[in-house]
Amino acid sequence: MPRDSVLIERRQVLRGAAALPLFLALGQAHAAGAARIVSLGGALTEVVYLLGAQSQLVGTDTTSLFPEAALKTAKVGYMRQLSAEGLLSLRPDAVVGTTEAGPPVVLDQVRSAGVRVELVKADHTWDEVQRKVATVGRVAGREREAQALQAELDAQWAGVQKSVAAAARRPRAIFILSHSGSPMVAGTGTAADALIRFAGGTNAITQFAGYRPLTAEAMASAAPEVLLNSTQGIEALGGETAFWQRPELALTPAFRRKALLAMEASHLLGFGPRLPAAVRELHTRMQAITA
């Protein structure tokens, strides 16, 4: 890839991660790293680019949407519905993903073929982000760059959490998952639940863990002040106007203000290097829309 193209891609990724300094090395040779890497998960793919290791990236999953260059990589399918044939066809030296990737039998087949498989524990914490950076750095042979990147991200995270802690209000929020099928709401133990709390809100759904169907009774009793969704979810429902026409939403305080916040899914729930920026944006918008 021409040097100018590499620099352009680099700047695009850095803007998405709150303009991290440009001292992270570009395109250096790292003999210890895997020469051919497949990344399973948008956040991990973002880290690959931030570490300047995109020349080692031979494939990604369908959640790898950022930076724009990731859209042009060979795709191996959705990270939860992989096939051994698709992964092995790219002849990877290493596959890096999270514990949400699978099915497990497929990853076992990939390991049996002699491919290194590194899985990062997904627990929706800042530690998860740190583990992703460290793992990609180790697999790509760019541990020095990973340490520098993590120091910058930790500083961003500390600043965001300080701002969130200073807010007097903790708006009641519900995240609605509506990418496909019937809409569902996010309970405890979900990425959305963690994001709401990180951004200084209160998840109005605490009666259950995971996702359950959206019902009128649940919405009325939860009484959310603000509703969260992804831009992809709103599009799947037919747009914002169609979203507010759902009768169960009329039972909520959020309906009166049309308090809906939507962000791109991988930015909102990816738990990667853009998490500080996502939390800051969500916090600022939640506070403004419920003021």
What is the rounded Rg? 20 Å
Any low-confidence stretches, pLDDT <50, length ≥5? 1-16, 18-31
Number of helices: 13
Strand fraction equals 5-15%
Reading the helices and strands in chain order gives HEHEHEHEHHEEHEEHEHHHEHH
- The overall pLDDT average reads 90
Identify the overall geometry: globular
Notes on the protein architecture:
With 291 residues, this protein is of the alpha/beta class. It is built from 13 helices and ten strands. It has helices spanning 3-16, 42-50, 84-88, 104-112, 126-140, 143-165, 191-198, 216-222, 231-236, 240-244, 253-257, 265-269, 275-289, and strands at residues 37-39, 57-60, 94-98, 116-120, 172-177, 184-186, 202-203, 211-213, 226-230, 260-263. It starts with a helix and ends with a helix.
Topology:
Elements: H1 3-16, E1 37-39, H2 42-50, E2 57-60, H3 84-88, E3 94-98, H4 104-112, E4 116-120, H5 126-140, H6 143-165, E5 172-177, E6 184-186, H7 191-198, E7 202-203, E8 211-213, H8 216-222, E9 226-230, H9 231-236, H10 240-244, H11 253-257, E10 260-263, H12 265-269, H13 275-289
Parallel strand pairs: 1-2, 1-3, 3-4, 5-7, 5-9, 9-10
Antiparallel strand pairs: 5-6, 6-8
Helix pairs in contact: 2-5, 5-6, 6-13
